[in-house]
TrEMBL record:
SUPFAM superfamilies: CheY-like (SSF52172)
Lineage: Bacteria, Bacillati, Bacillota, Clostridia, Lachnospirales
Xref: SMART domains: REC, Trans_reg_C
Gene Ontology biological-process entries: regulation of DNA-templated transcription
Keyword DNA-binding part of the UniProt annotation: yes
GO molecular function (one): transcription cis-regulatory region binding
Pfam families: Response_reg, Trans_reg_C
DNA-binding region residue numbers: 123-220
Residue numbers of 4-aspartylphosphate PTMs: 51
Organism: Anaerosacchariphilus polymeriproducens
Domain OmpR/PhoB-type: 123-220
Record's keyword terms, sorted: DNA-binding, Phosphoprotein, Transcription, Transcription regulation, Two-component regulatory system
Coiled-coil spans in chain: none
Protein known as: Stage 0 sporulation protein A homolog
Length: 220
């Protein structure tokens, strides 16, 4: 199915992750610290599971370094579930987060959802509000400049752009983009949209509008 890198300083958690994901046919590479994880990136991975609270090099620092090497989905596994930690994780390039302690069923479902997103066969492009969406490479270009969106940010933009004129709740966006229902984590959409707006504003663009009390829609 996929080659997955799991990074955590607790050996027991790594073994639990490995056994759970191997049931779905994934190849799982385990690393207990940041240095060994960076060395492991000499081979390609389709997804990375990353703990935050690790000694020496924590997950935030490691995430930044990983993002310089690969654009595959990164899911934080973390007991640090406060809003500032979530905002920080998503702003530096993570795609998703899973709160510890987590159920193995949810872990497997979250991984499968991201793999479905990565495995979708997309082609062609379309234009919306002066932006060109390249659906095969998941890029958004404006006046021949790349907005440098993460994959999750791109997918949210694509979903809202395709459904322009429709106001979508954050729960609906989460379910449609990530592929399953997890209302408690739909708050991640709020942070992704903040990042999208920040990147758009660098080019004088307002990409997403808030409809108070309802959700979000593509800004025409």
């Amino acid at each position: 199915m996929a080659r997955i890198l799991a990074v955590d300083d607790e050996k027991e958690i790594l073994e639990i992750i490995r056994k759970a994901l191997e049931k779905d046919g994934h190849e799982v590479v385990l690393c207990k610290d940041g240095d060994s994880a960076l060395k492991a990136l000499s081979i390609p991975f389709q997804l990375i599971l990353l703990d935050i609270m690790m000694p020496e090099m924590d997950g935030f620092e490691l995430c930044v370094k990983i993002r310089n090497k690969t654009d595959c989905p990164i899911i934080f596994l973390t007991a640090k579930s406060s809003e500032p930690d979530i905002i920080k994780g998503l702003s530096i390039g993570a795609d998703d987060y899973l709160k510890k302690p987590f159920g193995l069923g949810e872990l497997r479902a979250r991984v499968m959802a991201h793999m479905r997103r990565e495995g979708r066969q997309k082609s062609n492009s379309f234009i919306r509000s002066g932006l060109v969406f390249y659906t095969d490479s998941k890029k958004v270009m404006y006046q021949q400049k790349n907005l440098l969106l993460t994959k999750s940010e791109y997918d949210i933009c694509e979903y809202l752009a395709i459904n322009h004129g429709i106001t979508c709740s954050k729960e609906r966006i989460f379910e449609s983009v990530f592929g399953f229902n997890a209302d408690s984590d739909s708050s991640a959409i709020v942070e992704h949209i903040k990042n999208i707006r920040k990147k758009g504003s660098a080019y004088g663009l307002n990409l997403v509008e808030t409809v108070w009390g309802i959700g979000y829609r593509w800004a025409e």
